[in-house]
Amino acid sequence: MDLLDSSYWHNIHAVLGAIDQDIAGLYTEAGIEGVRTRFVGPLISINRLGPMTIRQLADRWDVSHSAMSQTVAAMRTAGLVETAAAAPGDDARTRPVQLTARSRELIPFLEAEWRATELTVRQLDAELPYPLSRVADDLAALLERRSFAERLRGNLPA
User: Fold this and answer.
1) Which tens digits make up the pLDDT trace of 44-89?
2) Whether pLDDT at 95 is above 90
3) Bridge-based pairing state of the strands 81-83 and 97-99
4) pLDDT at 127
5) Is residue 60 part of a domain?
6) Which pTM does this prediction carry?
7) 148, part of any domain
């Protein structure tokens, strides 16, 4: 058996990947091109809260500035966001990201999909013999006591 085939996390990654593909399939069925599932939360945030900087989006979604910068760049390429014009002397890094006309048209569908996804996940959670949300909370608590990085380093050969 190949080392990668025996990954303990393979099933979790596969399930999450399948869910992500099913959600993306809804976009395809609706004729929506260029929208990735990871775009939806930031797009809804910008719609609800108004233009936001990359730092504000990263903080809101608890991801690194670099990760959100890459997401915003991909959303810009897809024609979903644009950077607001900067005032003279403003640092380009603080320029707010705003929705385009195209993404504003998609927001009702994206919000409906978000609500439906949340409901579906809660229904799945209720059908499990133990709540997956509890597993995530328990795992987070364990990692608060001793980080994954610390545990990982402890398992590496000297």
Assistant:
1) 999 999 999 999 999 999 999 999 999 999 999 999 999 987 665 5
2) no
3) antiparallel
4) 94
5) yes
6) 0.83
7) no
Residue 1: band (very low, low, confident or very high) from pLDDT cuts 50, 70, 90? low
CATH of the domain at 49: 1.10.10.10
How many domains does the chain fold into? 1
Does 142 map to a domain? no
Helices (H), 100-147: 101-127, 132-145
Burial (CB count within 10 angstroms: exposed 0-12, middle 13-18, buried 19+), residue 95? middle
Q: Is residue 19 part of a domain?
A: yes
CA-CA distances (angstroms) from residue 48 to 13, 31, 92, 157?
Answer: 31, 24, 23, 49
Domain that holds residue 58: 4-127
What is the 3-state secondary structure of 80-105?
Answer: CEEECCCCCCCCHHHCCEEECHHHHH
